[in-house]
Amino acid sequence: MTTTLASLGRPPVGVLLRQWRVRRRLSQLDLAGDAGVSARHLSFLETGRARPSREMLLRLAEQLEVPLRERNELLLAAGFAPVYGRRGLGSPDMAAVSRALDLVLTAHEPYPAVVVDRSWDLVAANASVALFTDGVAAHLLEPPANVLRLSLHPEGLAPRIANLPQWRAHLLHRLGREAHLTGDPALAALHRELVALPGGTDRSTPDGIAVPLRLRTGDGVLSFLSTVTTFGTAVDLTAAELSVEAFLPADERTAEALRGGPVGRRS
């Protein structure tokens, strides 16, 4: 018996393509020009009057910046096998990725750094992250610990964040944008959950070059700027969906405290 797309509950590939094009705010003419096809052919693909080849589908997905996980969904919807694999970090094939992550985390010491997946669940962290998790409720640290929930929850880091409304606005905007760009319902649900938490938001333009994280500690308020590192050429889902979030000192006082002061010795 043939398995149909309808029985799988998967929308037709043309519908998915149109959803991604609309999400990226591109006209058919714009996307067709970028992908090197006619607008007429693209229209036929979206309406189901034509069936895309595997190569055409991957070309359109590349132009639309569709995440690898969703590219597999497009291929399945068109009747093709997925091309992007998913290996666990413990797999021998991922040894180089694991080593690279360990090197990056170690290199950021004595500054806090974490590895998170697409859902913002904690994958790994360096020792200095203890500065952030000090006093956090145990249930927020149970695997899979979500770093955004840990940051904004009243039993998490939130009471210690001196500029909580500003930091909340930054994180919620970032999460909302990621939920929209990826179309991931899990990210959208996480966004709704975190929006409902107390703490307020302050969307005013911050002083300086970026929104800092200002954290209350036993040594006073320490200020951090966050940076993100990703595997830019990954073709494996696990590697493509991992990122390293590092927190670097925003002022010399914070740098000094982490390098050699009491805070640095605790980490």
Structure in words:
By secondary structure, the chain is an alpha+beta fold. It folds into 2 domains: 5-77, lambda repressor-like DNA-binding domains (434 Repressor (Amino-terminal Domain)), CATH 1.10.260.40; 94-266, 2-Layer Sandwich (Beta-Lactamase), CATH 3.30.450.180. 48% of the residues lie in helices and 12% in strands. It has a 5-stranded antiparallel sheet. Strand 1 (113-116) and strand 2 form a beta hairpin. Helix 2 packs across helix 4 (39-47), helix 3 crosses helix 4 and helix 11 runs antiparallel to helix 12. It is elongated and about 65 Å long. The protein starts with a helix and ends with a helix. Mean pLDDT is 91; it is low at 1-7 and 262-267.
What does the secondary structure layout of this molecule look like, with pairings?
Layout: H1 5-8, H2 13-23, H3 28-35, H4 39-47, H5 54-63, H6 68-77, H7 95-107, E1 113-116, E2 122-125, H8 130-133, H9 138-141, H10 147-152, H11 164-182, H12 185-195, E3 213-217, E4 220-230, H13 237-240, E5 243-249, H14 252-260, H15 262-266
Antiparallel strand pairs: 1-2, 1-5, 3-4, 4-5
Helix pairs in contact: 2-4, 3-4, 11-12
Domain HTH cro/C1-type: 17-71
Organism: Geodermatophilus maliterrae
InterPro entries: Cro/C1-type_HTH, Lambda_DNA-bd_dom_sf, MLTR_LBD
Task: Give, in spatial order, the strands making up the sheet with the most strands.
Answer: 2-1-5-4-3
CATH fold topology of the largest domain: Beta-Lactamase
Second-tier CATH architecture of the largest domain: 2-Layer Sandwich
**Whole-number total of structural domains:** 2
First-to-last CA distance: 60 Å
- What is the beta-strand fraction? 5-15%
Broad shape: elongated
User: Helical percent range?
Assistant: 40-55%
Structural class: alpha+beta
